[in-house]
Design goal:
alpha+beta, D-amino Acid Aminotransferase, Chain A, domain 1, OB fold (Dihydrolipoamide Acetyltransferase, E2P), 9-stranded mixed beta sheet, 8-stranded mixed beta sheet, 21% helix, elongated
């Protein structure tokens, strides 16, 4: 009798291999437990690159492990059989390593266990390492049983074993090595013991640079967990910018960059604030101010300052430590896709679609040898590294209805020789059925060159026409008072 899953909720792929959702688990607390462990692990892991090893990693007792390009998964054992579940709620059963895991756990006298590891595909002989995109293809729709047999499991930690947890990683690792050390389809992740940062760098050079591994994970006894990976370089288009404040006025704060999809739309990627010299910040700010354009979409930076969108003209090379294509619960990371209307010089909203979060992005250089096209700014720069759902699909095919302008009020006022401008706009999004947008938006901007912060914004949203009308009247009465000349 299955104590872990309800098999009637599974879909059989090939032979005994079947998959399902978290509602197939008989214990509803198992999936949240897996999610919690994954979030805790992610929160304690510090991403670094090779150059950081000697500067940011102290001497300590380390378990240095080869990082496998797979899917974080937890193997569950009930005393008789084993299955897996990932943070996204995908349940799998009927794989060779599960039967082997059950046998090894029984042999060790264990009656219940949850083992964290990487589900991966044994690579073909012509490939240097496993790739997560290969795993996704086979795990979702295997063509034959020989493909299914290539699915393996590399264990690296114990969530719990016979109701016991292992706060000290060395104890967890020793248990994993003792139980799975002789396994074939399930095995401990390749790990060595070291103390000095130089040893971590040595294995990084061997495993990553020579053998093509994804990275190295170093778990210290007291210093924490470090994930060391090579930096990824990406050519990106500058879509917006913010200016510095206080003593940084007159200098660039950061830029909003994106890539191009095959349908020639722009998808937002990340904010980049590091890597610029002060001279670059002054010059680029001046250049970008000259090409500011209108946009249906607005975004704010970490200081809650809105980006001013610009004509897609400047291409820069950026680097990042990692690209994360999913949340800790294995949901997609959705980023806005915009259409550039060149004739009207404005960005139009299409919709959010899956992309990635770039970890620790840095400016590298300007790419004057590149031009604005889907080849030089190709999304494959990202999808060659991580799997991104719908990356090959046209964003325009998913385009939501265009917004309808309902009201607009613009007024000016001159004070001490400087012209101040206030603008109030209300529109109906026509996108409320998508559950991503409110029905109505009210947007107020107040520009006054004599203030410390010249531009201020206020946004109100509502799904009620009556409420948004009332908000319009309230803001109109408050802001368009005596002394202000209405020009539109």
């Amino acid at each position: 009798m299955d104590t872990l899953i309800d098999r009637s909720r599974l879909v059989y792929k090939i032979g005994n291999y079947a998959t399902g959702l978290a509602n197939a688990l008989k214990d509803p607390m198992l999936h949240p437990k897996v999610q919690m462990f994954r979030r805790k692990m992610a929160a304690t892991m510090r991403p670094l690159d090779k150059s950081d090893i000697s500067q940011k990693i102290p001497t300590d007792n380390y378990h240095i492990s080869r990082k496998i390009d797979g899917e974080f998964t937890v193997l569950l054992f009930d005393g008789e059989s084993a299955i897996t579940v990932n943070p996204g709620g995908t349940v799998r059963t009927g794989l060779d390593f599960m039967a082997e895991a059950a046998s090894l756990l029984k042999k060790a006298g264990i009656k219940q266990a949850a083992i964290a590891g990487e589900l991966y595909v044994q690579p073909d002989e012509d490939k240097t390492r496993p790739r997560v995109r290969d795993l996704m293809v086979i795990a979702r729709k295997p063509e034959n049983e020989s493909e299914v047999k290539r699915l393996k499991f590399a264990a690296f930690d114990i969530v719990e074993c016979d109701q016991k947890t292992y706060p000290v990683y060395a104890d967890s690792w020793n248990a994993i090595a003792a139980i799975f050390g002789k396994g074939k389809n399930i095995h401990p992740v390749e790990t060595v013991i070291g103390e000095k940062p130089a040893q971590i760098q040595e294995y990084f050079e061997q495993w990553v640079e020579s053998e093509g591994a994804e990275g190295v994970v170093a778990r210290g006894k007291s210093s924490g967990i470090f994930k060391i990976k090579p930096r990824h370089n990406i050519d990106a288009i500058v879509l917006g910018f913010t200016e510095g404040t206080d003593d940084r006025i007159g200098m660039l704060h950061d830029v909003l960059v994106g890539i191009m999809r095959k349908d020639e739309t722009f998808q937002l990627l990340t904010h980049v604030g590091g890597g610029f010299t002060d001279k670059m910040r002054r010059n680029l700010l001046s250049d970008l101010k000259d090409i500011v354009v209108d946009s249906e979409y607005s975004e704010i930076n970490s200081d809650r300052v809105a980006y001013r969108m610009v004509e897609p003209k400047y291409i820069i090379e950026i680097s990042c430590l990692d690209l994360m294509a999913e949340t800790t619960r294995q949901g997609t990371i959705d980023k806005m896709v915009l259409n550039w209307n060149a004739s009207q010089k404005r960005y139009e909203v299409i919709r959010r679609m899956p992309l990635v979060n770039a970890i620790s992005p840095q400016f590298v250089k300007f790419r004057e040898d590149k031009s604005v096209n889907p080849e030089d700014l190709r999304i494959e720069q990202i999808t060659d590294l991580v799997e991104v759902p719908l990356a090959d699909r046209s964003a325009k095919a998913y385009k939501l209805p265009e917004s309808t302008l309902l009201k607009r009020r613009v007024a000016t006022k001159t004070l001490k020789g400087a012209e101040m401008v206030r603008k109030l706009v209300m529109w109906k999004t026509n996108k409320e059925s998508s559950d991503e947008y409110p029905a109505y938006v009210l947007h107020f901007t107040d520009f006054s060159p004599n203030r410390k912060d010249p531009l201020s914004r206020e946004i109100r949203v509502s799904n009620s026409e009556e409420q948004i009308e009332a908000l319009w009247l309230e803001m109109e009465k408050k802001n368009f008072v005596r002394g202000w000349k209405v020009i539109d």
